[in-house]
Design brief:
The chain is α+β, with helices and mostly antiparallel strands. The protein contains three helices and two strands, in the order H-H-E-E-H. The chain has one domain. The longest helix is centred in the N-terminal third of the chain and has 9 residues.
């Protein structure tokens, strides 16, 4: 995910890239969506909420 969805775009802060690599995103999505956890897409997490797409999280953290 980091090399494909973040580094290839304008995310270049090594601290952000390290954090995005270290945090297991699949732990924050429902079990049935875990195969999709590293797609660059927002995913539903229940109660009408979503987990933001990885690029948006990285972009906000890098700002």
């Amino acid at each position: 995910m980091v090399s494909q969805h973040l580094r290839g775009r304008d995310i270049d802060d090594e601290r952000v890239l390290a954090a995005m690599t270290a945090v297991p995103r699949e732990l924050f999505v429902p079990v049935e969506l875990r195969p999709r956890a590293y797609e660059d897409a927002a995913l539903p997490i229940g109660h009408g909420q979503t987990i933001s797409q990885p690029y948006m999280v990285a972009r906000i953290c890098q700002a």
